[in-house]
Amino acid sequence: MTYILIRKFLKLFFIAQSPNGSQPSSPTDEISVRRISSFMLLQTRELPAAPTDRITDQITKRTWIEYSIVNNLDIFKLNIGHRNRTFSAEDLMGFNNTGNVCIWPSEETLSYYVCLNLDMFAGKNVLELGGGMSCLAGLFVAKYSSAKSVLVTDGNKTSIENVAAILQCNSFACKTDCSVLKWGEQRDYYKEYDIIISADCLFFDDARVDFINCVINYLSEKGMALVMAPQRGATLDSFILQSEARGLVCKKVMNYSQVVWEKRLALIDNCEYNDNIHYPILIEVTKA
């Protein structure tokens, strides 16, 4: 990753993570690389203090933001911590570090999707892969569904240290843990999960095979993986072809939420919007 790209990532991070009151983040950001940064599904509010009585360095060294999703009369909230320091080049160049930067649209739409489909997680063991600094979708499942257990993971140690602090500042409805999980690591034993969720983890060509192997190793025989990612040229289709070559079954779902679909249609004529790189597509992956 070049120095220029690191600067772009840092700039995007600080723009995307600067909440103002309880307003949704702007759908477009003026930065060196123009991009749609949000579908305005998440609202943010900076908390005046850490949302816990357990005051530790891990807690106080973070700014705490309340992220909320509103669906009709239902409101889903999570307290998310953001570290009060500049990211180093080492942080940004670690294993699969894209989640270190901001809440990407795929993570935003996956979080919205799981909140609207909580029943599907009832009694299930759930695994999130590549959850980044917040593991937002997985933690919404852990807090509001009737899942049996939720394990949120990322390959970057810095991300999981942040998630560990987040776990201390929220209450959950099931057993909830976080862990470093690097897709390419071989293990003697793989616990099987009923549902795997993942947002925007197909970006790097050289990591895609390891990601597919990870899904195969951890997904139960009758389970389902929910993979959210934009088309991004041939990236998504390559994932599907490689997955099917390994015996997986993939179903591409374009319209998985009427609200998200309508927001897409509203943005389609925006000169800054590129459907190929901005619109997250849902891939349902099964073993049969």
TrEMBL record:
Keyword field contains Nucleotidyltransferase: no
MF (Gene Ontology): calmodulin-lysine N-methyltransferase activity
Gene3D superfamilies with a match to the protein in the record: Vaccinia Virus protein VP39
EC number: 2.1.1.60
InterPro entries: CaM-Lys-N-MeTrfase (IPR025800), Methyltransf_16 (IPR019410), SAM-dependent_MTases_sf (IPR029063)
Keywords associated with the record: Cytoplasm, Methyltransferase, Nucleus, Transferase
SUPFAM superfamilies: S-adenosyl-L-methionine-dependent methyltransferases
Subcellular location: Cytoplasm; Nucleus
GO BP term (any one): methylation
Principal cellular location given in the protein's record: cytoplasm
A cellular component term, taken from the record's GO annotations: nucleus
UniProt protein name: Calmodulin-lysine N-methyltransferase
Lineage: Eukaryota, Metazoa, Ecdysozoa, Arthropoda, Hexapoda
